[in-house]
Amino acid sequence: MNFSEEFFAGVLSEERYIKIDPDIRNCEDVRMWYAFLASSLVTFIGGLILILLWSWRAFNYMCCAAYRLQNVTRRQLTIPPRLGEKDRSGDAAASKANAAEVGWMTAVKDWAGVMISAQTLTGRILVVLVFLLSIGALVIYFIDSSDPIETCKNFYSDTTLQIDMAFNIFFLLYFGLRFIAANDKLWFWLEVNSIVDFFTVPPVFVSVYLNRTWLGLRFLRALRLLQFSEILQFVNILKTSQSIKLVNLVSIFLSIWLTGAGFIHLVENTGDPWADFSNSVSLNYWECVYLLMVTMSTVGYGDICAKTTLGRFFMVFFIFGGLAMFASYVPEIIELMGNRKKYGGSYTSVSGRKHLIVCGHITLESVSYFLKDFLHKDRDDVNVEVVFIHVVPPNLELEALFKRHFTQVEFFEGSVLNSNDLSRVKMEEADGCVILANKYCQDADIEDASNIMRVISIKNYSPRARIIIQVLAHHNKAHLLNIPSWSAAMGDSVICLAELKLGFIAQSCLAPGFSSLMANLFSMRSTIEIDEDSWQKHYLAGVGAEMYTEKLSYSFAGLSFPRVSEICYQKLNLLLIAVQVSKPGGGQQLLINPGSAITLKPGCLGFFVAESAKEVKRANVWCARCHIDVTDLEEIRRCNCPHNIKVNASLSKHLTAFNGVNTSSNNSAKIIKQSFDEVAKEDMRYDSTGMFHWSKPRRLSESTLTKEQCAQLNLQGHIVVCLPETPLLGLRNFVMPLRASNFHYHELKTIVLLGDVSYIQKEWETLTCFPKLLVLPGSPLSRTDLRAVGVNLCDMCVILCSHSNTGSTIINFAGGHMMEDPSLQDRESILTSLNIKSMRFPGTRAVSGYSIPMITELVNDSNVQFLDQDDDDDPETELYLTQPFACGTAFAISVLDSLVSATYFNSDALTLIRTMITGGATDDLEEILAEGGILLPGPSNDSTLANRDRCRVAQLALFDGPFAQLGDGGRYGDLFTKALQQYNLLCFGIYRFRDVSSPVANPTSKRYVITAPTPDFPLVSSDLVFCLMQFDYCTGNGTTSNSAACSSANPVIANQSLHAVAKESSSTTATNNHCSLEVPLSS
C-alpha cells in the first residue's frame, strides 16, 4: 500500500468517529450568489425609496407650512385679542419645540461634517485611515481571488474574513457619518463611494451568517484609488498642479483597469446564468489584468480571451472606453513624467553642516565669481554647502560648473517668491541667503525692486533668516528698512554696488591706486610667484593678501592699538588695521587705526591683512611669556599659560589709559576745545551728523560755468569727472567721500562735472549742499571742453561709464536679427580715455595725456584690453592680472562680487570697507537719506568736532620729509615701525613706478600697487606709501598759538612738512615722468 492509499484510508477511518453534516459536505455544490447580490440591491433600492419618500414628505411639509402661515396671519387679523393670545402662545410653544429639534439636528450634522472634513486634524486622520483600510480590503480581495468565486468559510476560523469584517464595520460607521453630514441625501446615495459601499459591505455580513464567501463585486474597492490624489494633498505631499494631474491620471487609469479586471474575473469564473454556469473558465485575477492590458493596447496576443457571453459583451464596450483611455491617458502620463523638473525635489540637510542659499541673478559669470571666492582654499575649512535656486534651469556650461563642485553645490529649480520652493530648500534651516543682482541690467530700479521682493518673501516665510543682498542704486536701500523683520543685528546686510563703486573711485582721487589695492584685499586670490625681478613679481606678491578677522590674544589686553599693531607686524607677520571694541553705552564699535587713545580689552576682535586664515590664528594664540622670542612662526601655538599673562613692562611702556570719550585718535577733549577757536576761523560748516562738509544749497545755474569762465579760474589740483549720457548714477556717493569732515576745508579738492547738464540736473538736488562743486556743460569727447576744465592740471580725471544698453546692438546680417555686443557698453569710456591720452599740453607739467592721472570705470572686464595700447595683456586675462588694474587706472564693478562672500563669513568686514570708502557713513545719515531729504546743516560745536576725529586714507612721499632717509635703500619694516611709533601712521601698501625695478630707456609715469610688503622689502625715494592718517586739528588753523598743546597730543603734528608731503602726494603722481622718476633715483 502506497502513501496515498494509506492517507485516504486514514481519512475514511476518521469519518467513522466524526459525524459530518451532509449539508456541509455538499456546500461547494450549492450556489448562493443571489443572496449576496440581493443584500446589496435591497440596501441600495430600499434606501433610495426611503429617501424619495422623505423628500416628498418634506416637500409637502413645506407647502403645508406656507399654507398654515397664511391662515395664521389671517386669523390674527380677524379673531379677538384675548382668544388670539391663547393661539399665539400655542403656536409659540410649537415653534420653540421645532426650533429645538432643528437645532439638535443641525448640531449633529455639523459634528459629523467636522469629523469627515479634511480641514481638521481629526478629519484628515479619518479620511486617510478610510483610504488605507480600503486598500487593505482590496489586498484581501487579491488574496481571496486565488480561491473559487464562492467558497465555504467559517468566520471563527478564517483570519482574512475576520479582518475583512472589521474593515467593513469601520466602513459602515464612516458611511453613517457621511450620510448625516450630507446636505443632499439623494445625491449622496448615488455617489461612487456610496455605490462601492453598497456592493461590498452587506455581502460581508451575509458571509458571516451563511459561513460562505462570494468574491462578487468586492473588486469595486479599487475605485477608491480615485481619491489617491486628494489624500496626498491632505497630507501636503502633492503641492504642484503638475504632480496633482499626474497622480490623478495614474489613479484613474489604475482604478478602471483593476475594476474591469475584477468584473472579467467574476463572469469568466462564474459562467453565464442562462447556461447554468456550465461555460465557466478558470482564470486567476492577474490573468484578467493581463487580458485587459493587451486589449487596451490593441496588441491582443490571443493567448487569453473571454469565453462567456457576459465576458465578451463586456469586452466589446470596454474596448471602446479602454482604448480611448489608453490612447489619451498613457501618452499624457509619459509626457508629465518626462517633463518632471530635473532639478526638482527638496534639499536634504546634513547633520553638522550648514547650507547657504543663493538666488537672484544666477548666470555662469555670477556663479563662477561667487564660487571662486567662496570656496577658495585660503578660507579655513568652509563646511558650508551652497544651494542655488532659480526659476530657469542651468545651461550646459553652468551645469558643468555645478558638477565640478558637486560635493559642495546643489541647484534647485524654483523661486524664492514661492513658499513651497522656500520649504524645498529648507530656508528656515539655512545659515543665510544671498541675493545676487544683475550688474548689467538696463534699469537698476526694476532689478532692485525684484530683489527687494525676494527679501520680503523670504522674511515673510522665515523672519529670522539672514539676508545678504546686492542692490544697484543707493536710494533703493531705504526700501529694505521698511521691512519689519529686517535687522542688521541679526546679520542682514545690504551691499550697495553704486555706493561702493563710486566710493572706491573717489578714494582713488585722494590716493591713486587705492581702489585696486582694496579690491585685492577683500578678494580671495592665491599668491602667484614669479622668479623674474619685475613689477609683476611685486604686484602679485601682494595679490595673495586678504582681509581676515580674529579675536586677539589675552596677552594684548591693556595695550594701545599702535603697540598691538607693532607686535603683530614684527612678531607675527600680520598687519592689524582695525579693531572692534565695546561702546561705553553698550554695543560694538569699529575703529580703524584708533591711535593711542584706547587700550584693548580681552577678547577684542581684530581686522588683519594676511595671506590665509591659518596665519591670522597666531594673533589668537600668541603668548607674551612663551612666544616673545620665537622667530619661527610655525612654532607659535596655543600654550597652557593662564589668560592673565600680559606683555611685560619693557614692551608696554607706551600704554595710555582709555578716557572713554574719544574713540579714534590720541587727542583729548581738552585739546579739541583749545583748538576749536582757531579751527572755527575756517569757513567750516558741517551737516547734522558732523561727518561731511556742508554749504548753503544753491541752484545748478549758480554752479554752472561757461568755457571762458572755467578757463579764467586757472584750476589746478582739482578733480575732473567725465559723465556719460545716462540715467541716475548716484553721484552723491562719489562726492561724499571727497567732502568728509576729517579733511580741512582748504584741503578739499574742487570737483568739476563735465557732461550733459540735463542729466546732471536730475541729480543736482542730492549735490546742492556740497562745497567746491562746479559744472561745465559739454562732452568728454570734446578736446575743447577738456582743455577748458584744465584736465592737464587736475589731480585726477575720473571717467564714468554708462550702464545703459541703448545703442549697444548690431545687426547680425547672417541671421537677419538683432544681437547685443556687450563690448559696446564701454565705448564712451574707452573713447574718452584714448582721447585724453592722445592730447598734447606743451609748457605744463603733463606734456601728454598719458601723464594725466586717470581712472576709468568699465562695465565689462574684457574691455580693459583697449585702455592701454602698450600693454601685453591677453583678452582672456582676468581683470586683476591686467596692467591697468594693477596701476589703479581701471575699475570694474565685478570686483565687488567678492564682498558677498566676505560679508557672509564676517558681517563686520562690510562695515570696515564702507567706513574706509564712504568717508564715514553712519546709521543716522542712512535714515536721513532714506527719507529722501538733503543733508541738513549742523552746529559747529564740540560734538561735531569730535566726529571729525577719525583717520583717513592718504599717500606719503618718501623723497622729502621725516621718512626721506628711508627712501633710498631703506626697508619697509623700518618705515612701518617709525611711522607707527612716532606719528601713529599705519602703512599698508606702496604705489611704485612701474619701471623702477627694470630701468628702460624711456621710462613711463605709470605706477602699480604693492599690497602689504614684507618687512625686508626695499624702498626707493620715488615710492608713495598708502597709510591711514590721524586727523589733525592744528594743521588747518593757520595759527600756532596752540602748537605746543597739539604737539604733545599728536606727535605727527609737530612735523608740518609731513602733512605738506601728504597734501601734495597726489600731485606727485602727475609730475612729469623725467622729473618724478629720474630725480629720486639719482638722490
UniProtKB/TrEMBL annotation:
The chain crosses the membrane at residues 32-54, 125-143, 163-181, 246-267, 283-301, 313-331. It is found in: Cell membrane. One of its GO terms (molecular function) is metal ion binding. GO terms for cellular component: monoatomic ion channel complex; postsynaptic membrane. Gene3D superfamilies: 1.10.287.70, NAD(P)-binding Rossmann-like Domain. PROSITE patterns: RCK_N (PS51201). Keywords: Calcium, Cell membrane, Ion channel, Ion transport, Magnesium, Membrane, Metal-binding, Potassium, Potassium channel, Potassium transport, Transmembrane, Transmembrane helix, Transport, Voltage-gated channel. The keyword Repressor does not apply. This is BK channel. It comes from Oikopleura dioica.
